[in-house]
Amino acid sequence: MRRRRSRSTPWIQKWSRVIIGAIATLGLILTTYLTITALSGEEVLCNASGADGSSCASVLSSPYATVFGQPLSLFGALAYLSMIIFALSPYLISEEEKPNLRNTVEDWTKLFLLIGATAMTIFSGYLMYILAVKIVALCYYCIGSALFALSMLVLTIVGQEWDDIGQAFTAGIIVIFVTFIGTLAIYDPVNNPVAADGLIPEILTPPEEGIGWPIATTSTESEIALAEHLTASDIKMYGAYWCPHCRDQKNLFGKEAFKEVTYIECAADATKDDPQPEKCEAAGVQSYPTWEIDGELQPGQIPLDQLAERSGYDGPDEFKYRLR
Questions:
Q1: Cβ–Cβ contacts within 10 Å for residue 230, how many?
Q2: What is the pTM of this model?
């Protein structure tokens, strides 16, 4: 049986798990907020901006903020939740009634804390590099999360009793290697985009403040005919210039066809497309993009073949692009 801690145990070892749990809880709150904001299409609250005018919103809407089609913050929330469980689960077991079980849980969760904190720190470090070198913008949420991860790693290392420091060191090196290689693999399509027929292009740059992204695709007869049909049918698209999903929806049409779409800009600070936030509010729009078809709001990106079907379009339908 492992010897129990005595009163001479350093305070950092007594309280490290509690502090890690508290930090992870703050991280969970932060990433949950970012996830809800991303899924709802709302803009985050942040006044920070980079030298080129890019802000938290542009950072969090960049291709680096999406993993496997989901907001990166969703995976961050799951990671923080795991760290809470690893840190605090031993306290659910009575030290007096089941000392052996508690010792076993402490030993296992100690290793999991090391693995989780190391992986989160390496991943966050890579994102800090991307933030500073490629996106070149300030994002207090991103920096805060990176500091949370680093703090949990330090507390895990200095706040736990390591019977075999060599084993812990080896585990840490393996986690660093696996996390780094995995991170490069995840973001390889973003760092090295490959053009593919039928897929809208990857766009790595942040949106221009007040304007957004230029439409990067061209239209065929099918997209133009559909756009004209939508306008004739009084079908509208509500969006915001900084919204990456709106950008992708526009690229499905192409620049020639989207000129024919009835588009209502909901961002009050937009400097083009005649912003009309009052119309968006009156219509009850809550996320972007949102389509209004036959008086009903349909949120989210809609592939052109589905738009054609929902709108009763019966013209040429050899649409050029589809969503990634």
A1: 25
A2: 0.60
CB–CB of 86/113 below 8 Å?
Answer: yes
Contact 123, 180 (CB under 8 A): no
CA–CA separation, 265 and 172 (whole Å): 49
In 3D space, the residue among 254, 248, 202 whose CA is nearest the CA of residue 226 turns out to be 254
2.60.40.290, 1.20.1440.130, 3.40.50.720, 3.40.640.10: CATH of 11-191:
1.20.1440.130
Q: Which CATH number fits domain 221-311: 3.40.50.620, 3.40.30.10, 3.40.50.10260, 3.30.420.40?
A: 3.40.30.10
Q: Is 206 helix (H, G, I), strand (E, B) or coil?
A: coil
Sheet containing 262-265: order of strands: 262-265, 236-239, 290-293, 296-299
106-148 per-position pLDDT tens digit: 889 999 999 999 999 999 999 999 888 877 777 889 999 999 9
Distance CA 237, CA 304 (A): 13
- Separation CA 144–CA 129 (nearest Å): 14
Distance (Å, whole) CA 209 – CA 114:
41
Which residue is listed with tokens 């083009």?
Answer: 272
User: What residue spans define the domains of the chain?
Assistant: 11-191, 221-311
Contact partners, residue 222, CB within 8 Å, separation at least 6: 304, 315, 316, 317, 318, 319, 320
pLDDT tens-digit profile of 37-92?
888 877 777 755 444 444 676 677 777 888 888 999 999 999 999 999 999 999 89
Q: Which residues contact 100 (CB under 8 A, 6 or more apart)?
A: 1
Phi, psi of 296 (to 5 degrees): -110, 140
